[in-house]
Amino acid sequence: MSMIHGGKLVAQALAREGVSHLFTLCGGHIQHIYDGCLDEGIRVVDFRHEQSAAHAAEGWYRATGQVGVAAVTAGPGVTDAVTAVANAHRSGIPMILIGGQGPAFFREMGSLQEMDHVSLMRSITKWSASVPETRRIPDYMAMAFRKAMTGVPGPVFLEMPLDVLMNMENPAHLSIPAQYRTTYLPAGEPTAINTAVELLENAERPIAIVGTQWFHSASKQTLKPFLKAFDLPCFVNGAARGALPPDDPQFFRLCRSKALGKADVVAIFGTPWDFRLQYRQAASSNAKVIQVDLDPEVIGHNRGVDVGIHGDTGAVMEQLTGASTGNLQSRASWFSEIGNWETARWEKMQAELNSDAVPINPLRFAKEVAAALPDKTTIVCDGGDIVGTSAKVVQVHEPGHWMDPGPLGTLGVGPGFAMAAKLARPDEPVIVLYGDGSFGLNGFEFEACVRQNIPIVGIMGNDAAWTQIRRGQVEMFGEQRAPATGLAFTRYDLIVSAMGGHGEHVTHPDQIGPAIRRAFASELPALVNIEIGQSDFRKGSISV
C-alpha cells in the first residue's frame, strides 16, 4: 500500500465519522487536510473570516445533530475562531476545531504564527490537545469525537503541527480506532424517577421547561408522550425551539415568567437557571423543582431542587412516562389561566403588529416576515433587539430550524450558521434574521455564499442603532450622552448586490412580503434591508 501524508489521515478519520463538509479559511499550515478531503469526497467550504468558519461547525450540529468540523491556520487563524468556540462551549454544542501550528521541530523558535494555542483554548473546550506525531492522528481524531459527544456535548480543539500533517505513513502499519464511543444514554436513578412522578401527578399548577439538551437526545420522540401523560403546559428555549408545533395545545411561549411565578411544580430539562429564566427570581419560592441535566454540577445551581436527576432529557422523559399512574389532578383551570395570559399578551401587541407607521414598527416587521416564510424555513438569529421582538411572533415548525446565538449572546453567528444549514438542507429556505449592527461583523460572507452558490437570505431590521444597548443607555444618561450606539441607515443591500447577490431596500410595511418572496425567487444569496423605527415593546429587557 502506498504511503499517505497526515492530512489524508485526518480526512479519512472525518469520513469514518460521516463528515461531509469541512469549514475553513485557507492557511499554509492546514492545506494537506484539504488534499485529503478531495480524496474522501468531503466538500471544503471556505469563509472570509475564521469566526464564521467555526460558527458553521456549530451550525452544522444545530441543523443536523452531527458534529461539525472547522480547520483554521495557526496564530491569528486560531485566535479569530476563539469567539465561535466560546459560543459553542457556553451553549453545550459539540464541534471540532483543527488548528495549524508551525513544525514541531521549530517549537519555541519563533516560527510563523507560532503561539500556545492549546493553553488558549483550554478554558473554552472540553479538551484541547496537540497531536504529537503523524501516526497518532487517527487516535487523536477518535478521542476528539468521543470527547465532543460524550456526556455534556461541547467543542474540542486539536492542534496539528505542519510536519505532523506533511509526514508520510504506511496505513497498513497504523492502528485505526473503531467502536470508540458509546451510543447509550444515561438515565435517571429509579428512586428519583418515582419521586418526580409523585410530584407531577399531585401538582395543581405544573409546567415543563425544555432546553437544548432535548435536541442532543436520541430519544426526542418521548417529549409529546411525556407531556400528555402528565398533562403539562410546556415552554421551550435554545435548540428545543421547534420541538412542538405552534398549534400544539400544550405549547406556550408568551407568558413563561407569569407561569413560573404561579407554578407549584417546575420540571426543567436540559437548560440552566440562567438569565433567560431570571436566574431563579421568576419562579415562586414555594414551587417544587425537578431538574434533569446531563451535567450533575448544574443541578441545584442558582435554584435548589426537590428532585435532581442526572440523565439524558429524552431518556428521563421516557422513564417518567413509563412510571406514571394516570392519577392526575385536574389541569383544566390551569391551562385556561395560562391561555388567558397568552391571549392578553397577544392582544396587547395587536396595535403595533398592525401599525402602518413609517419607519416600520418592529412588531409589524416581525408579522410581515412571519407571514412570508414557508413552514420549513430555517431561521438563524443574528441581532439583538429585532431578534428579541421577532422571537415572539415568528413561528418555528421543525427542530433544528431555529438557531439563535445561545446564552453567550454572540453577534456575527448569522452567515456561518446559515451557510451550514443551507448546505445541510439545500432544498429548504434559510434566512438570517439580522440587526443592522450585527451585519457588520461577518457580512462579507455573502461574497463566499455567491462564489460557492449557497443561497441564504438575510432579512434585516435596520434601525440605525445598537438598539438593545442604546435604549437603556439613553434612559440612563440622556440622548446627548449616548456615544457608540448610533449607526446610519446604510444601504447594506447594495453591498450584497455588488458582491453578485440580490439586494432589496424596503421602507414601507406593505413592501416586506413581496421583497422577501423576490429574494427567495432570485435563487441568489440575498439581503432584504428593511428600515424600521422604534418601539417600547422590549423596554426594560435585559441587555447585560
Radius of gyration: 24 Å
Mean pLDDT: 95
Which structural class fits the helix and strand makeup?
alpha/beta
Helix content: 25-40%
Contiguous low-pLDDT stretches (5 residues minimum) are none
Spatial sequence of strands, sheet with the most strands = 3-2-4-5-7-6
Portion in beta strands: 15-25%
The best one-word shape is globular
Q: Strand tally, please?
A: 19
Quote the distance from N terminus to C terminus: 59 Å
Summarize the biggest pleated sheet: 6 strands, parallel
Helix run count: 21
Q: What does this molecule look like?
A:
Helix content is 39%, strand content 16%. The protein has 21 helices and 19 strands. It has helices spanning 6-16, 31-40, 50-64, 76-91, 117-122, 137-149, 162-166, 190-202, 213-216, 223-230, 256-262, 313-323, 332-353, 362-372, 385-390, 414-424, 436-442, 445-452, 467-477, 492-498, 512-522, and strands spanning 4-5, 21-24, 43-46, 68-72, 95-101, 127-130, 155-161, 168-169, 206-210, 234-236, 265-269, 288-293, 307-310, 378-382, 402-403, 430-435, 457-462, 502-506, 526-531. The strands form 4 sheets. The chain has a 6-stranded parallel β-sheet, sandwiched between helices. The radius of gyration is 24 Å and the shape is globular. The termini are far apart.
List the helices and strands and how they pair.
Layout: E1 4-5, H1 6-16, E2 21-24, H2 31-40, E3 43-46, H3 50-64, E4 68-72, H4 76-91, E5 95-101, H5 117-122, E6 127-130, H6 137-149, E7 155-161, H7 162-166, E8 168-169, H8 190-202, E9 206-210, H9 213-216, H10 223-230, E10 234-236, H11 256-262, E11 265-269, E12 288-293, E13 307-310, H12 313-323, H13 332-353, H14 362-372, E14 378-382, H15 385-390, E15 402-403, H16 414-424, E16 430-435, H17 436-442, H18 445-452, E17 457-462, H19 467-477, H20 492-498, E18 502-506, H21 512-522, E19 526-531
Parallel strand pairs: 2-3, 2-4, 4-5, 5-7, 6-7, 9-10, 9-11, 11-12, 12-13, 14-15, 14-16, 16-17, 17-19, 18-19
Antiparallel strand pairs: 1-8
